[in-house]
Amino acid sequence: MPFPVPSSGFSDDPADHDQPTSGDASATPPRRVPPGRVQKGPFVDQCVPGKYAWCRCSKSSQYPYCDGTHRGSEITPLKVVFEKPVTVVWCACGESCNKPYCDGSHGRL
User: Fold this and answer.
1) Degrees (nearest 5) of the Cα angle 73, 78, 83?
2) What is the pLDDT of residues 57-71, one digit of tens each?
3) What is the C-alpha to C-alpha distance for residues 80 and 97, in angstroms, rounded to an integer?
4) Distance separating alpha carbons of residues 93 and 14, to the nearest angstrom
5) pLDDT in tens, 77-88
6) Which residues, 6 or more positions from 77, have their beta carbon under 8 angstroms from its beta carbon?
7) Which residues pair with 22 in a beta bridge?
8) How many Å apart are CA 35 and CA 77, to the nearest integer?
9) Residue 80 bridge partners (DSSP)
10) How many C-alpha atoms does 80 have within 13 Å on its Cβ side?
11) Whether the Cβ atoms of residue 80 and residue 51 lie closer than 8 Å to each other
12) Which of 14, 46, 90, 109 lies in disulfide reach of 64, CB 3.0 to 4.6 Å?
């Protein structure tokens, strides 16, 4: 549910996050369900153009995507924008030196 933030801008409100839709279902591969927790390995997803918020607090129920759980803390999500469809290898262990992307750091855990 809370994958990219609407194109109007970034929002920390989970209600503002929508899963992208397309008029042509064959044009966009199906989205994978995020693990919702830190894991020893990356989360690979087919991302459509738009804005994404990667969770830095590791408490999101949609981890590695932000769901606003960090509210009330000084932690903020890392925000990225994709201009075209792309396969993204998101860090899901939280240890990458190339956040929000996986760099293989999970192999040392």
Assistant:
1) 150
2) 999 999 999 999 999
3) 16
4) 22
5) 999 999 999 999
6) 12, 53, 54, 55, 56, 66, 70
7) none
8) 17
9) 52
10) 20
11) yes
12) 90
